[in-house]
Amino acid sequence: MIIHLSQPDRNLELQGPKQVKVILKELKIVAETVLVIRDDGLLTEDEMVRDSDSIEIRPVISGGA
Amino acid sequence: MKCRKCPGKAVLSIPRHNTALCSPCLTEYAHAQVERAIGREKMCTKEDKILVAVSGGKDSLALWDMLRKLGYQADGLYVDLGIGQYSIRSREKAEAFAESRNATLFTQDATPDESIGIRELADLVRRPTCATCGCIKRYQFNRTAVDQDYDVLATGHNLDDEAARLMGNVLHWQQEFLEKQSPVLPASMEGFAKKIKPLYRLTEREIAAYCVVNSIDYIVQDCPMATGSRLLVYKEALNVIEQASPGSKQSFYWGFLDQQRKKAKSDQPSISDQDRATLHPCEECGQPTSATICSYCKLMAKAKIHQKVS
After folding, report:
1. Which residues of chain B make contact with A7, given a CB cutoff of 8 A?
2. How many other C-beta atoms lie within 10 A of the C-beta of residue B176?
3. For labelling, which of B138, B172, B181, B207 has a CA lying 20 to 30 Å from the CA of A2?
4. CB of B82 within 8 A of CB of B118?
5. Per-residue pLDDT tens over the stretch B50-88
6. A61/B12 CB distance under 8 A
7. What residues have CB less than 8 Å from B111, skipping those under 6 apart?
8. Is the ipTM reported for this complex over the cut 0.90?
9. Measuring CA to CA, which residue among B143, B162, B166 is closest to residue B200?
10. Three-state DSSP class for B142?
């Protein structure tokens, strides 16, 4: 599968299929800080991502002042 | 995962409420939280004219969208901070949102001219960029709300913002800031607009999910100036705690608000009383300040000196 990450923008590949929560754990990403998106739709942590899928892991944390 | 409210498929789990929601139920939940915030804190009514501080990011665009859908009269103000491509793209997002919804958006420039950006201003006054940016935005949003006769100024601060800010204020025991960390600040004296934070019951993740399911196109990239900001460090720490113990962020901030409400019922002076006792009009612009000249006018004076020299 291809995973698009932001800040900085980059792609990485992982072998699928894998559950969303497993992907986040492998990438050491706290679930509360991101959304996982496939084809413009949100994925919950229990969903399976196929090897042929492309997903976006979008950060939701922002802020300065 | 199934939606806990209907037979639909869930798109977001919300561990702090031990629930999971489909797209329509998520939208309904977000609207209900905003309505509850507005009602509980007596933020505004549907007769009020609301000015929304718009950045092009998820929070301000979601807030503007929700207020309009809930029947409030809400216009937007975007302040261009001159941060290169980030400002160009965020302005485009704000303008596209307004245009697609036939909503009114005012735009202003934060700096005196294009040759001086927010980073240069921050260097001139030897303050962090985020603090300088905050000073300019607070001034321009407040001033526009007052000058254009808006009843309320609404900002997109969310539960994560407020919990992180509270953590910073507690860690450094900044008592004077703690007292003003309410989702509503009154128009305590002439020159101050009433300020409200209707998203304080929603997390950043819930708001971002609201944007995705409602096709709100926002700037995903964070402000490049925010890299390394302490607020982000506090948010990271709180999210680690939240992951291990869902509900911690809301119990931290909402618990603080409960304490503040109890305190307000005692005979201590209100925020309005304190403001009237300590603030007076700035000699340059007339906006309320505790000094002779307000921070914004001092900043702009330094920027003008810089322009003459260079």
Report:
1. 221-222
2. 9
3. B207
4. yes
5. 999 999 999 999 999 999 999 999 999 999 988 889 999
6. no
7. B81, B82, B117, B118, B121, B136, B303
8. yes
9. B162
10. helix
Provide mean pLDDT across the span B252-269. 87
CA distances to B22, B29, B183, B285 from B46, rounded to whole Å, are: 28, 20, 18, 31
Chain B closest-CA separation from residue A65 CA (Å): 5
CA atoms of B66 and B299, how far apart (whole Å):
35
Contact between B249 and B16 under an 8 Å Cβ cutoff? The reply is: yes
Query: Can you read off the two tokens belonging to residue B273?
Result: 């009383």
Residue B141: which of B228, B53, B216, B231 has the closest Cα?
A: B53
Show the domains of chain B with their CATH numbers: 40-259 (3.40.50.620)
Q: What is the pTM of this model?
A: 0.92
User: In this predicted model, what pLDDT tens digit does every residue of A25-39 receive, in sequence order?
Assistant: 999 999 999 999 999
Per-residue pLDDT tens, chain A, 65 aa: give them.
999 998 888 999 999 899 999 999 999 999 999 999 999 999 999 999 999 999 999 999 987 54
- Residues of chain B in contact with residue A35, where contact means CB-CB under 8 angstroms, are 12, 205, 208-209, 212
What does the pLDDT read at residue B307?
65
Asked if B32 and B26 count as a contact pair (C-beta separation under 8 A), the reply is: no
DSSP secondary structure of B221-238: SPPGGGTT-HHHHHHHHH
C-alpha to C-alpha distance for A3 and A23, rounded to whole angstroms: 10
Closest residue to B204, CB basis, from A6, A43, A62: A62
